């Protein structure tokens, strides 16, 4: 039976009983706490910096609705520290794993949270759903566009509840900005600008023997084999195209997601894309670090994605999203929202206005949907479509020409060369 929690098992079993049964006290909650049968049993896969510091310590272990049953990482030091965190917080020993498949195959685990490097996201999420798990997966959701299409298919086939880690959708400022835009409060939308920041190209570090705690071959997984170097792993993997798409997919997966929300393109995307970017001339980081990408959406809406910083409508911006309409503008970033007319921010929406999905906490929204089986605020298709915008930008910069995109077919029009970049070969034995 698909993803049956203990709570649902107890309820369904009770319905079949013809005689009264004695229910153990452990089923019921202590005052102010969820019953054990109401908790979601979670395996945390990828417990490095973001996975441990943000998700495990601040979100999973502090949430009374969650029981962490397993931690997993290909770096022994990471998984041992994570297990220690669980013990110190909950006085509970958890399963400690190197291989994500062992976590996904545990019958007692309801859901997994994935915070691995980007080139692993889709493989692990797809396997987890096939094992009957609900999924929270960090952004950027995928390494390629075809991976996203596959994840959507798998989620729909198995009825999985899927939350993409684009948590700005659960922030009231970003929701307000998009509601103002979607309801014409700045007039007809003309232009959207996302400013996501660049990177400072690093210097080479010589290949070295991997640390004894790190399974380097497993860390590479489906990516081509290369010798280990200290600045290829952990946070800096983002700047190597074998594992990620640079800032375009890193911060772009956040701000381009909000752009899609404001435009109203969650199930669609742009029609054309072109861009230019700079790469470090002799490495080691081979992603685009300085760039400007232009997208054409229906109804004449233009979107520009910049490494920045830039000035727009008299506002100097190094990070954030600017919506410009015929009658004004609204700018939003984490912790801040501004408008050409400050009174717009006090707008009281009427019953005839379009209201967007309300979530005040990204992880709790995931838990709510696991219970209700409804789709999360950043469902797998939303995450896939927003990530697609980022991948399109990188592909346009790689090819150096304007491309025509068909968002219904999710392929480039009459462009075999560009369509080859929708997927990647995977190093054996990994397939999806």
Automatic annotation (TrEMBL):
Residues 1-29 form the signal peptide. Its EC number is 1.1.1.18. One of its GO terms (molecular function) is inositol 2-dehydrogenase (NAD+) activity. Residues 207-431 form the Gfo/Idh/MocA-like oxidoreductase bacterial type C-terminal domain. The keyword Signal applies. It is an enzyme of class 1 (oxidoreductase). Pfam families: GFO_IDH_MocA, GFO_IDH_MocA_C2. Residues 42-165 form the Gfo/Idh/MocA-like oxidoreductase N-terminal domain. Keywords: Oxidoreductase, Signal. This is Inositol 2-dehydrogenase.
């Amino acid at each position: 039976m698909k993803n049956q929690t203990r709570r649902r098992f107890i309820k369904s079993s009770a319905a079949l009983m013809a005689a009264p049964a004695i229910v153990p006290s452990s089923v019921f909650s202590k005052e102010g706490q969820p019953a054990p049968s109401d908790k979601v049993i979670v395996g945390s896969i990828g417990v490095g910096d973001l996975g441990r510091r943000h998700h495990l310590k601040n979100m999973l272990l502090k949430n009374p609705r969650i029981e962490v049953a397993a931690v997993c990482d290909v770096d022994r030091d990471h998984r041992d520290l994570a297990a220690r965190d669980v013990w110190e917080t909950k006085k509970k020993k958890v399963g400690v794993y190197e291989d994500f498949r062992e976590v996904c195959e545990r019958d007692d685990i309801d859901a997994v949270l994935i915070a691995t490097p980007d080139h692993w996201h889709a493989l692990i999420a797809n396997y987890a759903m096939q094992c009957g798990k609900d999924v929270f997966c960090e952004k950027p959701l995928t390494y390629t566009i075809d991976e996203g299409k596959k994840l959507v298919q798998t989620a729909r086939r198995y009825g999985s509840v899927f939350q993409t880690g684009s948590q700005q959708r659960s922030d009231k400022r970003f929701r307000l900005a998009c509601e103002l835009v979607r309801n014409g409060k700045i007039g007809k939308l003309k232009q959207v600008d996302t400013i996501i920041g660049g990177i400072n190209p690093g210097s080479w570090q010589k290949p070295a023997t991997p640390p004894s705690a790190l399974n380097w071959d497993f860390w590479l997984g489906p990516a081509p084999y290369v010798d280990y170097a200290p600045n290829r792993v952990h946070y800096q993997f983002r700047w190597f195209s074998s594992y990620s798409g640079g800032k375009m997919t890193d911060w772009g997966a956040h701000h381009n997601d909000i752009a899609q929300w404001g435009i109203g393109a969650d199930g669609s995307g742009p029609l054309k894309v072109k861009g230019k970017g700079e790469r470090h001339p002799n490495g080691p980081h081979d992603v685009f670090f300085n760039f400007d990408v232009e997208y054409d959406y229906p109804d004449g809406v233009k979107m520009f994605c910049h490494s920045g910083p830039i000035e727009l409508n008299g506002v100097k911006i190094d990070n954030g999203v600017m919506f410009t309409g015929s009658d004004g503008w609204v700018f939003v970033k984490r912790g801040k929202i501004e408008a050409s007319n400050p009174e717009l921010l006090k707008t009281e929406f009427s019953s005839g206005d379009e209201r967007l999905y309300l979530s005040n906490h990204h992880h709790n929204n995931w838990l709510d949907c696991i219970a209700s089986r409804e789709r999360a605020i950043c469902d797998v298709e939303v995450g896939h479509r927003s990530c697609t915008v980022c991948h399109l930008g990188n592909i346009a910069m790689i090819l150096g020409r304007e491309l025509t995109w068909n968002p219904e077919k999710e392929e480039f029009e009459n462009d075999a060369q560009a369509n080859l970049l929708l997927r990647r070969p995977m190093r054996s034995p990994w397939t999806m």
